[in-house]
Amino acid sequence: MKKRIAAALCALLLAVNLIPAASALPGEQTLAADKLNTLGLVNGTGSGYDLDRSATRAEAVTLIVRLAGGEQSAASGSYHAPFTDVPAWAQADVSYAYACGWAAGTSETTFSPSRTVSADEFFTFLLRILGYQDSNGDFVPGEAALFARHIGLSTVTSYSTFTRGDLFEAMLSALTFPKKGGTQTLLDGLMAKGLVSQAAANALGLTSESLTARQIADRCSSAVFFMECYATDYYRDTNTTSSTSSGFFITSDGIAVTNYHSIDGMAYANITLITGEKYPVEKVLYYDAGEDIAVLRISTLSTAGERTSAFAFLPMVSSDTVRNGDVIYAIGSPLGLQNSVTSGVVSSCSRTIEGFSIPVIQNTASISIGSSGGALFNEFGQVIGITSAYLIYGNNMYLAVPMDPVLRADLSVPGKTLEQVKNIEKTKSDAA
After folding, report:
1. What is the pLDDT of residue 394?
2. C-beta separation of 382 from 316 below 8 A
3. Chain segment 76-125, per-residue pLDDT in tens
4. Which of 87, 187, 209, 301 could bridge to 175 as Cys pair (CB 3.0-4.6 Å)?
5. Of 381, 399, 386, 272, whose CA–CA distance to 337 is shortest?
6. What is the arithmetic mean of pLDDT over 349-365?
7. What pLDDT is stored for residue 23 in this prediction?
8. Is the predicted pLDDT of residue 326 greater than 50, yes or no?
9. With helix as H, strand as E and coil as C, how does the chain read?
C-alpha cells in the first residue's frame, strides 16, 4: 500500500513554478490604512489616505518612527542630523531615525525629503527597526523588498510602483512580524508603551492566536518550498527532473523537512522559494523510510551565487496537541503549482496505516502529486504534520506524518549527501 502511495506521489511531472508579482487590490490597502488609523498610526480617511500617490522619504521616515514607538523620544529634541534640507515638520523624526541608524541621507548634508520613497528604501527602514542590519550582511538594501518577501514580511514579490497603499500594507504586516531572533513584535512594544490600545488591537484581530486561512497563507507560505530532485549526474547536468515534491524550513539557517519518499533514490536536489530563488540541498541530517521523514540542510548559497542570511521558518508542535475535528491547513506544490493552500479538518489524529511505522494524521485538506513533504498546519500556524499520501480508493482521505520524530531527532550531526543516502539504501536493498 505504501509503495503504491509513494509511487503516485513521486510520479514524473512537468513542474510549473508560479511566482506572484502583483500588488494587492486597492480595497485591501484601504483596509490596512483603516486598521493603522484605528491604532493611531496614520491619519486620514477614505480618499484622504492618498493610496495611489507615492510617499516621500520624509513621510516614510515619520511613519517608521511612529511604528517603532519612537515619536515621543524624537519630539524631545535630543537628536540631531547633519541634513540641511529637512522641513521643520519632519526634522525631529528624521534626526531620531538617523541617530538610531534606521535611515541615512542621500549625501552627507542632504536627506532629499521630498523624493519619493522606493519599495527597497521603505523595506530597508522596516527591516532595520525589526533588528535586521544591512551593515552585517543580513540583507542588501537594494534588494530589501525581495528579502522581505523571502522571510515572509511581505506578500508581494515585486512592485512596478510603490504607493502609499503599498506602504500601509507593509506597515500593517510589520506590526505583528517577530523581530529578528525573537518573538517580540512592534505591536507588543507599542502596547507596552501605552501607545496602542490593547482593546483596539484585539478588536482588529491583531492579537488573536487563531489564524484565518488567509493569514496562514500570508505568514507561512514563504517557509514552504518546491523541490526538484535528480537521480543521477546526467539528470542534474541536463536539468532533467526525476521527481518534484514540497518541503518547509524549521530553522532560519536552513534546516528543512520533507518526506523520505521525496528523496528516495535521488542524488541531488534544488529547492525553489516563493520568490523564485533556488538553493541546493546540501545534506540529509535525519531520515527514516518507515516514518517517511527526511530532514535536510539547505545551502545558504543560492544557485545564482547569492548568499542569504536567513530563511523563513515554521514552528512545530507534537501530535499530542492534535484532536479529531481540529481545523487544519496544508501548503505545498501539487502538480508543481507552488504554495497552493487547502483546508480541512483532522479526521483521526492517530491512524494506523500499513506502510507507515508510526500512526499518522488522517485529514481532509486536499493534496495531490507533488504535495509530498508539504506542511500541515493547525489554526495557530504551527506545523503538526508533513503531508505525505492519500488513500487512492477513498474520498478526502489524506495522510500526514506527525512532527514528533523531527522534534526528537538530533539535528546537530554533520549529515550525509543525498547520493550517500542513495548508496546506503541501495546496499541495504541489495543485501535484503
Report:
1. 83
2. yes
3. 989 999 999 999 999 999 999 999 999 999 999 999 999 999 999 999 99
4. 187
5. 272
6. 96
7. 44
8. yes
9. CHHHHHHHHCCCCCCCCCCCCCCCCHHHHHHHHHHHHHCCCCCCCHHHHCCCCCCEHHHHHHHHHHHCCCHHHHHCCCCCCCCCCCCHHHHHHHHHHHHHCCCCCCCCCCCCCCCECCHHHHHHHHHHHCCCCCCCCCCCHHHHHHHHHHHCCCCCCCCCCCCHHHHHHHHHHHHCCCCCCCCCCHHHHHHHCCCCCHHHHHHCCCCCCCCCHHHHHHHHHHHEEEEEEECCHHHHHCCCCCEEEEEEECCCCCEEEECHHHHCCCCEEEEECCCCCEEEEEEEEEEECCCCEEEEEECCECCCCCECCCCCCCCECCHHHCCCCCEEEEEECHHHCCCEEEEEEEEEEEECCCCCCCCEEEECCCCCCCCCCEEEECCCCCEEEEEEEECCCCCCCEEEEECHHHHHCCCCCCCECHHHHHHHHHHHHHHC
Number of Cβ atoms within 10 Å of the Cβ of 288 = 15
Alpha carbons 349 and 363: distance in angstroms, whole number? 8
The answer to whether the CB of 362 falls within 8 A of the CB of 40 is no
Cα diameter, the chain: 80
* Contact yes or no for 231/211 (Cβ under 8 A): no
Alpha-carbon distance values, 364 to 63, 70, 333, 341, 347 (Å) = 43, 47, 17, 13, 7
Checking if the pLDDT of 19 tops 80, the result is no
Please give the pLDDT value at position 392: 86
Among the ranges given (27-31, 32-36, 342-346), the one the predictor scored with the smallest mean pLDDT: 27-31
C-alpha 36/C-alpha 201 separation (Å) is 10
C-alpha 125/C-alpha 153 separation (Å) is 13
Residues found in the chain = 432
Q: What pLDDT sits at residue 4?
A: 37
- In angstroms, rounded to a whole number, what is the distance separating the alpha carbons of residues 150 and 156? 10
Q: How far apart are CA 282 and CA 278, in angstroms?
A: 13
Closest to 148 in 3D by CA, of 383, 308, 333:
308
Greater confidence, 302 or 432?
A: 302
pTM comes to 0.88
Cell of 55: 510617499
**191 CB contacts (<8 Å, ≥6 apart)?**
197, 198, 201
Instruction: Read off the pLDDT of residues 391-407 as tens digits, 9 standing for 90 and up.
Output: 988 889 999 999 999 99
